[in-house]
Design goal:
binds 2-amino-3-ketobutyric acid; Rossmann fold; seven-stranded parallel beta sheet; alpha/beta; 12 strands
């Protein structure tokens, strides 16, 4: 993104944030935000973006795992188990929380390996944050996913509203979240907002056990071993997005005026590629990279997911537009990972 469009985005967010501040406790600063599952792939990045605009103290990262020094260097961190309603309630009250961003969840591949835990975290945990958000009139963001669709859904493209019969516990839990959130919105006026994300690609944080993880791992392998073992077939097309677009979509959507929203759950799209297409792009930077395809259980999951997302409703309603295409994504990943691995070597 160019410096002038970054500046334009910043000014636009700033105006929307000021409007938001009139609605919450914090007077002139931004809303107080609690991020659950904050040490996963998206939490620290979102905290960094929000803190840069409105001060470190306004965003509390939470998780049940012990943070690295670097993850807590720039603002508050607190232990929070989403299965413990009282623990969450105490944080909401004591820290005067206005928004919850509920990232805590088991993703598609790990969910299949531990269904009871996925049910607890993804469904019971959601019930806790939803009930709390209703009681304390918080704004609640819950990410959904391309995994909320199944083989009966149209797959190229997948519209915002169509049949959803996912075949993973992750997908089932996300459809449950979408429906319950929309119900709480209509029934109790809960300000529930939900984006369906594609596979998210980032260099400074790791995805935690999804079906789209290969699209991050291939970059690490390109720089370290020069060989990538891909667990999907070369022609498996899936929607993907660079993390900066994902975080920007979250902030823009959270700040979108209510009267612009014709629904509470939106598809967001950026690009769509196969492992072979990604491999060919990465090889422009690392010509010696090799790939071997050994499809495993994740292939079965990917075969039921959308190939291309139709996000026209998000574009129409609140102006969603991705800004990072595949070639830029590959350049960002390779140059930053080269730098990070060099720094690691020196340390
Ligand atoms: C997964 O692969 O499970 C996630 C997702 C697409 O929601 N990355």
């Amino acid at each position: 993104m160019s410096a002038s469009s970054m500046r334009q985005n910043f000014l636009r967010f700033d105006k929307l944030f000021k409007a938001e501040c009139r609605l919450c406790h914090t007077g002139k600063r931004g809303p107080n935000v609690l991020i659950t599952g904050g040490l996963g792939q998206l939490g620290t990045g979102l905290a960094r973006e929000l803190r840069a605009r409105h001060g470190a103290e306004t965003v509390i990262l939470s998780d049940i795992i012990k943070p690295e020094e670097s993850e807590i260097a720039n603002g508050p961190f607190i232990f929070a188990d989403v299965l413990d309603f009282k623990c969450l309630q105490e944080i909401v009250v004591n820290k005067r929380i206005d928004w919850i961003v509920h990232f805590s969840a088991l993703l598609s591949a790990v969910g299949e390996n531990n269904v009871p835990l996925a049910v607890r975290v993804n469904i019971e945990g959601l019930h806790n944050v939803m009930e709390l958000s209703k009681q304390y009139k918080l704004k609640l963001f819950v990410p959904s996913t391309i995994g909320a669709f199944g083989p009966e859904s149209p797959r190229n493209p997948t519209p915002n509203l169509c049949i959803q019969r996912p075949k993973t516990i992750y997908g089932v839990s996300k459809v449950h979240a979408e429906l319950l959130g929309e119900y709480y919105n209509k029934r109790f006026n809960l300000d529930f907002r939900c984006l369906r994300f594609p596979g998210i690609i980032s260099y400074d944080s790791h995805p935690g056990g999804g079906t789209t993880d290969y699209a991050v791992q291939i970059f690490h392998d390109a720089i370290t071993t020069g060989k990538h073992h891909c667990y999907l077939r070369p022609d498996t097309r899936l929607p993907m997005m660079y993390i900066d677009d994902c975080l920007r979509s979250t902030i823009e959507f959270m700040l979108a005026p209510t009267d612009k929203l014709s629904t509470r759950t939106y598809n967001v799209h950026a690009m769509s590629f196969t492992p072979e297409e990604l491999f060919n792009e990465v090889r422009k930077w690392v010509p010696e990279l090799e790939i071997e395809y050994n499809p495993d259980a994740r292939q079965k999951i990917a075969d039921t997911w959308p190939m291309v997302f139709d996000d026209s409703i998000a574009r129409q309603d609140w102006g969603w537009k991705p800004s990072i295409p595949l070639d830029s994504l590959v350049e960002i990943m390779i140059t930053n990972l080269r730098r990070l691995y060099k720094e690691k070597e020196k340390a």
